[in-house]
Design a protein that fits this description.
18 helices; alpha/beta; 58% helix; 2 domains
């Protein structure tokens, strides 16, 4: 079965019992593991239980295809349902799972983890079209999604967060779900019991490396024409696990904010009042750099940057070129025009 966007979270919290095998896939590896674990716990309380959980790799199934059915049809020694987890799946396993889905276990659940699978992926199509299976996509959260996760997680721990702090934090930690969770946990540890309201100063202090070497550094290095600094910061962000699409969208958002401010100025507002209408507000240490970019770029140039970044994001999903290469090329191009 293929899930609509609004159906994904409800399904993850309570999987449809008709789905006897669930494919969890996508570019956000952290989210893949998180959702697979959440659904797995609907079957067994302890995912490390050696009696009720079988962990298989795609390579092991390629070497011994019969093991899938053996594990999936095995009865639990302790009673109840068993969980079979398969990692590193790809289209090479399509035939194996097609055969398994003709007669899946009615009690045990199979959860398969995979990376990015395109719309034409045979494995993805198999699970989307099967009535006894389901495909759960895991794409990188945008800033709005990350902001919601921040607020929900902090609220569950007894904290509230100010809007400017939430916006800044979401922009600077957006990426792989595992990295996002780690940064939120760091913030909660930092807050301790000294305050129940998280401020912008709090998140910048708690972010540490994420704040000092943030996407903001990349944005302003590009806008200031600092090619070497831009590439250096970009490489560091990639090494830290920030997903390329997050970087591309942050760049688009930065130039969109510049374009919006520029349009207000063209309508008669002074730069100060125009910038005050931005949410989140420009961090005070970056105000001079932001103003310099307003003076440097025309409306046409900013629109060109935004269109170019949008095209590159589309290319990362359509071509075989490594996404890191496409992103570094556009960063080099934009910085050279700064």
């Amino acid at each position: 079965m293929k899930l609509a966007w609004k159906e994904i979270e409800p399904f993850v919290k309570k999987p449809n019992p008709k789905a006897r095998a669930i494919l969890v896939y996508g570019p956000d590896g952290g989210l893949v593991k998180e959702r697979a674990a959440t659904m797995g716990k609907a079957v067994v309380a302890d995912l490390s239980d050696p009696f009720n959980v079988a962990d298989l790799s795609a390579d092991s199934l390629m070497d011994d295809p019969a093991r899938l059915a053996d594990e999936a049809k095995a009865m639990s020694m302790m009673g109840g349902a068993r969980l079979i987890r398969v990692s590193g799946a790809s289209d090479k396993l399509t035939v194996l799972f097609k055969e398994y889905l003709t007669d899946p276990s009615s009690e045990n659940l199979v959860i398969i983890e995979a990376g990015e699978l395109g719309p034409k992926s045979s494995l993805r199509l198999l699970f989307e079209k099967s009535e006894s299976a389901a495909a759960v996509p895991c794409y990188v959260d945008d800033e709005r999604g990350v902001a919601n996760l921040i607020r929900e997680t902090l609220s569950a721990s007894g904290y509230a967060i100010q809007s400017d702090a939430s916006a800044w934090f979401a922009q600077n930690i957006a990426g792989d779900r595992g990295r996002v969770r780690g940064e939120i946990d760091k913030l909660i540890t930092y807050m301790g019991s000294h305050s129940k309201t998280v401020t912008l100063d709090d998140v910048r202090a708690a972010s540490g490396e994420a704040g000092d070497q943030s996407i903001d550094d990349l944005l302003y290095a590009i806008g200031s024409g600092k090619v070497d600094a831009a590439l250096r910061t970009y490489n560091k962000l990639v090494e830290e696990g920030v997903v390329v699409v997050t970087i591309l969208r942050s760049l688009q958002n930065h130039f969109r904010r510049l374009h919006y401010t520029k349009s207000l100025m063209n309508a008669g507002e002074d730069v100060g009042s125009a910038m005050k209408k931005l949410q989140p507000a420009v961090f005070f240490k970056q105000e001079d750099a932001f103003k310099a970019q307003l003076r440097k770029y025309s409306d046409t140039k900013l629109l060109g940057f935004m269109n170019r970044l949008s095209q590159v994001e589309a290319q990362t999903k359509q071509t075989g070129t490594p996404v890191e290469t496409l992103c570094s090329q556009v960063i080099l191009s934009l910085a050279a025009q700064g």
